[in-house]
Amino acid sequence: MDRSMVPGMDLPIMHDSDRYDLVKDIGAGNFGVARLMRDKQTKELVAVKYIERGQKMLV
Predict the structure, then answer these.
(1) Rounded to 10 degrees, what is the CA torsion of 22, 27, 29, 34?
(2) Which of 20, 51, 52, 57 falls between 20 and 30 A from 30, CA-CA?
(3) Tell me, what DSSP letter sits at residue 8?
(4) Which of 20, 28, 26 is nearest to 44 (CA)?
């Protein structure tokens, strides 16, 4: 896929620890965790949702 054709994809991909500082965990559910993060450059607060990948087997 051509990244230039997708809005917001013109920015370099960064690992969360490169761009954001963890403020606190704000919630968790069946599919992942939501965290309050602060942008290191702009100091803006953002919510980031971490979604688990792969299948789980219930026993």
Answers:
(1) -30
(2) 20
(3) T
(4) 20
Residue 25 CA, distance from chain mean position: 12
- Name the phi and psi angles at 27, rounded to 5: 175, 160
Residue 43, sorted as left (phi over 0), alpha (psi -120 to 50) or beta, turns out to be left
Among 39, 8, 4, 9, which Cα is nearest to 22's? Answer: 39
Nearest to 4 by CA among 16, 15, 12: 12
Question: What is the Cβ-side half-sphere exposure of residue 6, based on CA atoms within 13 angstroms?
Answer: 8
Summarised one tens digit per residue, pLDDT across range 17-35 is 688 899 999 999 888 889 9
